[in-house]
Amino acid sequence: GDSVTQMEGPVTLSEEAFLTINCTYTATGYPSLFWYVQYPGEGLQLLLKATKADDKGSNKGFEATYRKETTSFHLEKGSVQVSDSAVYFCALTHSGTYKYIFGTGTRLKVLA
Amino acid sequence: EPEVTQTPSHQVTQMGQEVILRCVPISNHLYFYWYRQILGQKVEFLVSFYNNEISEKSEIFDDQFSVERPDGSNFTLKIRSTKLEDSAMYFCASSRGAGGNQPQHFGDGTRLSIL
Asked: ∠ CA(A65), CA(A69), CA(A71), 5° rounding?
């Protein structure tokens, strides 16, 4: 069945460092891909999405490119801030289903 | 920005008791969902609901679970006879449509603790 694999956390970075959180997926066809972020004590917030191969989703300085050839959707940010400390979830869905399939989440901690 | 609201934020219940988790989806959304996250594990899909009926459910969503939209604004998840393994964070979500171009919007969750 479909699945999403994320890199293990926690990831600890200094402020202004470059961030990469890896996400790979297994799915039939062409799923839509998402990154959600969960700040402490809050729910899941959509960060960005991509619905077809080679699409780049971007929001708040974060980017991810839908790579069909490597079945990946890695999250990147050029310069992280302390306020980016949160748990980041990669997820997929595709036509014919209503459900989202999530990865395990990656905790990011940014130090001042 | 409109948001999905869930109540209560934390529910503590004795094993074997019934529990109802409540959600108010975003007002112009038509699709509603419940997910759960057992501590330290993945967020898992439970059920989707559209046009007053279940459109999809997972293997987790057995006869102990039910969903209802009792009025025009609330969406509830009922667990009939709770078990210890039902302890988890339960997330409600809603979307305007189905598919990747209509992302699901999530509430802050209800933490359910079964004693």
From this structure: 65
**Interface contact flag, B56 A45, Cβ < 8 Å:** no
A43-66 pLDDT, tens digit each: 899 999 999 999 999 999 999 999
Which parts of chain B register pLDDT below 70?
Answer: none
Expressed in percent and rounded to 5, the helix, strand and coil fractions of chain A are 5, 50, 45
Q: Tens digits of per-residue pLDDT, B46-76?
A: 999 999 999 999 999 999 999 999 887 899 9
Residue A81 to residues A12, A17, A84, A106, Cα–Cα distance (Å):
12, 8, 5, 16
Burial tier of A20 (Cβ tally within 10 Å: 0-12, 13-18, 19+):
exposed
Contacts of B107 in chain A (CB under 8 A): 43
Give the A window 86-105 contacts with B, CB below 8 Å.
89, 91, 93-95, 97-105
